[in-house]
Amino acid sequence: MAEPMMRQVISRIAGQSWLRKAVVSTPGIREVAWRFVAGEDLAAGIAVLRSLNARGIKGTLNYIGTHVKDEAEAVAAATAAIEALRCVHAEGLDANLSVKLTQIGLDIDEAFCRAQLRRILECAAKTGNFVRIDMEESRYVESTLRILEDMLDVYGADTVGIVLQSYLRQRKSDLERMLARGSSIRLVKGGYWESSDIVYRRKVDIDNAFHQDLKVLLPKGRYPAIATHDARFLVQARRIADEAGMDPRTFEFQLLYGVRPDLQTELIRDGYNVRCYVPYGGNWYAYLLGCVRRIPGGIFRRVSEWIRPVS
Ligand SMILES: Cc1cc2nc3c(=O)[nH]c(=O)nc-3n(C[C@H](O)[C@H](O)[C@H](O)COP(=O)(O)OP(=O)(O)OC[C@H]3O[C@@H](n4cnc5c(N)ncnc54)[C@H](O)[C@@H]3O)c2cc1C
Hints:
The chain has 311 residues and is of the alpha/beta class. The protein is built from 13 helices and 8 strands. Strand 7, helix 11 and strand 8 form a beta-alpha-beta unit.
């Protein structure tokens, strides 16, 4: 099946509430889900953070949700983020928070979204923690960066940071722009299905763009975060950092919870900082389907890798 058609099928599946009910209550599927999602509530997220921290791995908690259209739901999502920050602080865990602006109202009204973000950042500042704003579809990039810049002015780069996506064709200057602002940057290849005039779609082009950005970000960035499961880029990043004489404690690698735990262990063993993105919440079904739908290229390979028995 052609990939765009496959994505449409997955979108349709995601919209069927009867199917969702059947799937979320099926034990086998729930077991697979808990390999990639901490669980349905904050307590599950905290339990995963504890076990990661015990292995020397840091965490970034994410309360699953996106494209919220209802004000009360957006306020509740911001409140959940605040609870997560308080709990991480109370438990003394080594973890920060990742948040999506469309979950806290960017689709409703920008001023409303900013107000919700400020609530979260006030709590982060009080608890001495850090919030990273995830990057979403290309239509949100400019507003997300503007909001980040304004929040940096108020809360500073120790409290809030951003994600940049290398696959965007027209936004090469964002990296220098964010470096100039002193923002902490998580570099990713980019995770959404977009048209080929907006993003690179061929793996080779995405990889080249990611490589170029890595070379710029690593030596210049403020505690840069390299988020990839691509083992070749872990090697490249390590080489670039070595050649620039960087102390391994001045940057970190980030991976998704449940994906390539072997690489996480290897990086920790070699003395690098590793942070796991730990999603939790009742919307885990949407997160898993979103992962499958968003992965650019190689969808069948990925699905087969997920279901491959762990050796
Ligand atoms: C911590 C973290 C935060 C992220 N935040 C954002 C964000 O804010 N915005 C955004 O657009 N994107 C985000 N992404 C997603 C990112 O943009 C990529 O889509 C995703 O990481 C896949 O690209 P890759 O670099 O891992 O390399 P790929 O070349 O896509 O994959 C390399 C190998 O990694 C494995 N792999 C990759 N992804 C998965 C997966 N989901 N499940 C199982 N195996 C997998 C496969 O073995 C694959 O062969 C994030 C990724 C991570 C790790």
